[in-house]
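Students often ask why we bother predicting the structure of a whole assembly rather than each chain alone. The short answer is interfaces. A chain on its own may look different once its partners are present, and contacts between molecules only exist in the joint model. In this exercise we take two input lines together and write out one structure for the complete complex. Read the inputs first and try to guess which parts will touch.
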Amino acid sequence: MKNLKTLYLILILAFLYVPILALMILSFNESKSMAVWSGFSTKWYEEMFSNTLIMEAVWNTFTIALISAAVATIIGTAACIGIQAMRKKTENAIMALNNIPLLNADIVTGISLMMTFLVFGISLSYGTVLLSHITFCLPYVILSVMPKFKQLTGNTYEAALDLGATPWQAFYKVIIPEIKPGIMSGFLLSFTMSVDDFVITHFTRGAGINTISTMIYSQVKVGIRPTLFALSTIIFVVVLIVLVASNMAGNSTNPKVQKGVTAFTTGFVVVLLAGTLVFSGIAGGSGGKEVHVYSYGDYIDPALIEEFEEETGITVVMDTFDTAEEMYPVVKNESVTYDVICTSDYMLEKLMEEDLLAELDYSGIPNIDNMDKRYLELAEGFDPGNKYAVPHTWGSLGILYNTKVIPEGEITSWNDLWKDKYKGRIVMPDSMRDTMAIALKAKGYSLNTTKEAEIAEAIDYLIQQKPLVYKYANDSARDLILGGACDIAVVWNGEVLYTQEENPDLAYVIPKEGSEHFTDAWAMPAAAKHKDAGLAWINFMLEKQTAEVNFDYLTYSIPNVAVIEMNKDNPANMGVLFPPDAVLTKCEALKNLGSEVDDMYTEYWKKFKS
Amino acid sequence: MSRKSLASPFLLWIACGTVIPLAVIAFYGFTDRSGTFTWDNILAIFSPEHAQALGLSLLLAAISTVICFLLAFPLALILKDSKLGQKGFMIFIFILPMWMNFLLRTMAWQVLLEKSGPINAILTGIGLPAMEIINTPAAIVLGMVYDFLPFMVLPIYNTLVKIDPHVIEAAYDLGATKKRVLFDILLPLSVPGIASGVTMVFVPALTTFVISNMLGGGKIHLIGNIIEQEFTTSANWNLGSGLSLVMMIFIVLSMAALSKLDKDGEGSLL
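Now the answer. The structure tokens for the assembled complex follow.
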């Protein structure tokens, strides 16, 4: 019986801690893939400390947690004193209100706060996150402190007053020591909840404000980098040390040991917090000329940002977004003004139509000559005359498959993805327009169709395919095929070279019906405040060396002559990165279809999703 | 200065941070884009895609809650009797995982459960059949149980340790079997903790969108996912608010049940 109990305990503990162990191990993985172990390395730890975006997120997370826990503790403790003096009925009513944020769903708390801020004209920012965190921390403080008041022994407060203490003295010397454990646990619990929160921050954060959680969530969608595992491992280990030390202090009966351990723990935490704050403060510090850049997350080698700063003396303030749709209202409402943005073709087209972009002054971008002419031409599809945008990356959708299982050449068409024999081995994208593009192309329609009948047919076709699909995933498709979870994955060409390096048995094909291609490009919002700095940034992006470094980092096609030069001796790579004209001409870029057609797509998409 | 006034910053905060936002949700839920009153956003729950998502969410949340209870009750009993069950240690082992980011912890299951992931490697290694639960509702249930188990264990543990040991001794003295002690004493006396635990697991499980996003492979849409999308991608606040109001009916129901079963707030998390 005893053994059985121990076994049960061990199993539960394993259940709780195995995932944490797995993440710690992955933080030392040489490979960026989660599915392959390719050797021990500490490179993610080094990358983490030099990544200003991560350091900023760390700064935000801990300052928000510290301030909101402190404010909540003060307001909450004061409130407990006040509530104590009230009638029982009032007290019960207040406690019921207090329980609402605690028991309510995070998502409801998050969206209700977000709507309230916006309704009252408060634009989302760091401050709104802070206010929201204080709101959800308060109930924890009340719940921790209130019971301590109930346990107060007799009338010590009145006794102190009788003995001549002032009310403040009586409170400070008599009450505080007794409720201190409650205050401490309220503070620590608030701090923990604030650091661990994702949902409420997700809804109430302003553009460019990231905490560790929101940063992780945005990376989950675009393929997470192990730097975040490294960061979390460090945080976890630090907290583990602190908790073990304070537990030791609590269990020891020797007051000297207690004091020593407490002093050590406090010192350790103070030094660490100060270190983080100073370090991330330096990383985020500014002075002199600035350029405000707004781009998809993880789209530039962070080393290049430092290089640009050194070369030009301009400080880069970088904000990122996950989807073009998320960026659009920010640029449109100018809630934050940016000097350069990097986003996708169809969104740039929409911004142009609404006069939200500035024409580029090419005299400030002499490096435009490094851009391959073919891709500038392609960019004219959304930007005639290349007036507003300069390509950053180019990509096309294709099928990656494992030739160990499926003979090379067997897959040539999108319709192959509907074959029963591949059941459970296919990974499709999870993005409305991209997924529908596949079905539309398979049926021989344009992926920008506005005909309801064609859209309906495509959706029916996708529904028919659903049982064959292992998973709908975006960039994590590469890990699934590398790990052997699937044998066929629809991926962007930028994922191909990197996955083939890990597993040479993978083959890539752009289906014969043609495919979707995209250009992500740099442009300047009409409201830009530092246009010169913005042009300097774009020019720097077009430098040959920058393009090479970025290509190594991203492995996406960067249509720079230097990158083409790098790959020209490798026909297989060229086929993936810069496909021949015969293939290119069958590909289409997504077009902005207008809100009516968009709604129609969304309607049908929901039908497919349910 | 009266002592009561010390509570005023808090009351103001509750008014602005809880009461007004709920009113805003209600306002949006009962109006359309032009601001005129409508029932449409509420009735939208009956359209097949929304009703299915809500049904599935209720089902998965209920299963997760039951599993959490079945795992947590014996665990709390064991911890209560063992030396390990000191309060500091309990909080230590169950709060500590929260310091590894919740999203990453959930994502770790993606890696562990993958068809050719470590767990299956071990299973097939010892001659057992591989599990294929990733991207199915089962994986989502697992994620929910994993993320919310501490919220079931702590309140149950806290009520169990408050039970007067003499009561149990008395029962044994009077000839009760172990089984009877369990069902007639321990279980009924820990009802406040169980009720609190059930609420604290059921509500987040019902409303999650992160777990279904990460472990459902984009195939499974829960009501949380639909609401999240109304706010982030479709930008239809009215519909999103309406669906949230419907979802809140279930939250309020479970809160009401809780306050009935746990009148004195005994089964608190702390």
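Check your guess against this: Chain A has a mean pLDDT of 86.
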